[in-house]
Amino acid sequence: xxxxxxxxxxxxxxxxxxxxxxxxxxxxxxxxxxxxxxxxxxxxxxxxxxxxxxxxxxxxxxxxxxxxxxxxxxxxxxxxxxxxxxxxxxxxxxxxxxxxxxxxxxxxxxxxxxxxxxxxxxxxxxxxxxxxxxxxxxxxxxxxxxxxxxxxxxxxxxxxxxxxxxxx
Length: 168
Ligand SMILES: [Zn+2]
Ligand SMILES: [Zn+2]
Ligand SMILES: [Zn+2]
Known about the structure:
Layout: H1 22-36, H2 42-54, H3 60-71, H4 77-89, E1 93-96, E2 101-104, E3 114-119, E4 125-128, H5 131-144, E5 152-157, H6 160-164
């Protein structure tokens, strides 16, 4: 799969609900990394593509299996974890602690706290941006004199599609 022809497009809609074409978001990630002098190597890029294509939080071992299928070259867990660490450090991926899984951040081009709604029935995740959440977290952290290292909000429940299908 070649993504070189895809141009990153900027999104100014803060309620777009992260509905973007995976290839376009990967191209955006590549251009962000390029601008920072960070190397989005082939493997890091493949991991990011797989996360975008998956559409739900994906665990490291699932990624390893998918990489094996894609490249027919076995990749060890430490390599994949290092790639994930890089993607997290660049703000391109968030870790969902409650599932021990990873999701791509829809808008790495804008600073924001990631807010995820996670469906416990179908496994889907929906990322929203709400600057009020970030402000609230900052205020509380400041009041507590707490240094926040990771600001990812996870909300578990059942998504609209599953509710419509009678799952809740
Ligand atoms: Zn958007
Ligand atoms: Zn995000
Ligand atoms: Zn669901």
